[in-house]
Amino acid sequence: MVSSTTAATPAAPTSSGFRWLQLVMGIVCMAMIANLQYGWTLFVDPIDAKHHWGRAAIQLAFTIFVVTETWLVPVEAWFVDKYGPSKVVMFGGVMIALAWILNSYADSLTLLYTAAVIAGIGAGAVYGTCVGNALKWFPDRRGLAAGATAAGFGAGAAITVVPIANMISASGYQAAFFDFGIEQGLIVFILAFFIRPPTVAMPAKKKQLNLPQTRIDFTPPQVLRSPIFWVMYAVFVMVAAGGLMTAAQIAPIAHDFKIANTPVSLAGFQMAALTFAISLDRIFDGFGRPFFGWVSDNIGREYTMFIAFGTAALMLLTLSAYGHVPVVFVLATAVYFGVFGEIYSLFPATCGDTFGVKYATTNNGMLYTAKGTASLLVPLASIVATSYGWQAVFVMAVALNATAALMALFVIKPMRRNFILGNETAADEAAAGNAKTA
Predict the structure, then answer these.
(1) If DSSP codes are grouped into helix, strand and coil, which group holds residue 263?
(2) Tally of CB atoms within 10 A around 248
(3) Are 145 and 293 in contact (CB under 8 A)?
(4) What are φ and ψ of residue 210, in 5° steps?
(5) What is the mean pLDDT of the segment spanning 154-170?
(6) CB of 254 within 8 A of CB of 274?
(7) What is the DSSP annotation of 27-39?
(8) Residues 6+ apart with CB under 8 A from 229
(9) pTM for this structure?
(10) Which of 351, 303, 300, 305 is closest to 136 using CA atoms?
(11) Whole-angstrom Cα distance, residue 77 to residue 83?
């Protein structure tokens, strides 16, 4: 049987206010690393204009960043367990500042790729630690806590997109890399001093029929041997691939559609289509993560996945057919990112529900590597777009999201319930047998 010791009740704070403070600090740290991913698209064309390396070669740096950020999270989680979250986040702050400083001086692809590795290490240290800490502080509200923390990463770039774009235009992309790199790293470094793990036990949450949660803590090796983990991993890759491609390529897509600088007026605001789209994307992404986390706490993880993945497929299909219309481009990408970002709240919460709290940071870190796997498809999107147009890329993403929506309801839901109930039943029978022989 794949099981371990019955879970001790998850650690919790001595006061409700303190755990909310920890959550807020985690959100701010996540916001400070958001531009490493979501602000990158603003730099692609300026870098290419200066060095003429080509979009595909420059976007490889984005893939290297995401792969490094995600695949090293389980290793960084081990350091969290050994040395605590504060030191790991502090290290992450130094690394993200160093990475953007190097980007500002990069005069070769080798240096650009080296900076991407350093940025990935730093971002992974901050991301994995903050999400894992949120899961431990809020075992009673996993979806909301993970979603709010991930919202910092999703929406953090919203308030800096316009300043970065303006600085790139006025002073060049090198100045934007240098100045924002130092500011972001310094804020993370300072907040790291105050981040703490929970130390006091909290009573287990009452079971809900629509929200099955295990009483058993599964170790990372046990998780890797469970089929449900790999099914969740596959669905994560399918959904993340489209989102990462769109986030990394939104500026090139807008330029190729010839609408990047077209003015768009909505709700009394007027901006260039690309700037408007990126700003709204970050806002909707940030709002969607805690919202869908909260929804999943109430109606269940898989039903929420079905709604979100299905909506994502519809928006991608809209972009494929009408993305060349500026207002449609702005609104469709906003709604798409509003439902895409929920994977960063739903999957950590689902992972904690399925495999327990004790090893939540490491287990979620292993699942989070799916984002790195999905990022390998980002350069492929540029190649497909060159040969067949962005419509072909969107159609492929539509198929992946639609398939993921169906798998959430008809594969993940029954498999996860059977996994939890089956292992708890076996553990109870084993405990009863031991009691009789004692």
Answers:
(1) strand
(2) 28
(3) yes
(4) -90, 0
(5) 81
(6) yes
(7) HHHHHHHTHHHHS
(8) 223, 354, 355, 366, 367
(9) 0.78
(10) 351
(11) 10
At 270, is the secondary structure helix, strand, or coil? strand
For the chain, the first-to-last Cα distance in angstroms comes to 21
Picking from 131, 201, 179, 188, the residue whose alpha carbon sits closest to that of residue 348 is: 131
Question: Which amino acid, residue 233?
Answer: Y
pLDDT per position as a tens digit, 205-257: 555 556 788 888 899 999 999 999 999 999 999 999 888 877 767 888 888 88
pLDDT digits (tens, 9 = 90+) for 320-371: 889 889 999 999 999 998 898 889 889 999 998 999 877 888 888 899 899 8
Flag whether pLDDT at 317 surpasses 60: yes
Q: Where are the alpha helices (DSSP H) in 52-198?
A: 55-71, 73-83, 85-105, 109-137, 142-155, 161-171, 173-192
Q: How far apart are alpha carbons 393 and 383 in whole angstroms?
A: 10
Q: Please give the structure tokens belonging to residue 65.
A: 């960043």
Q: What pLDDT shows up at residue 159?
A: 76
Rounded to whole angstroms, the Cα distance separating 180 from 156 reads: 13
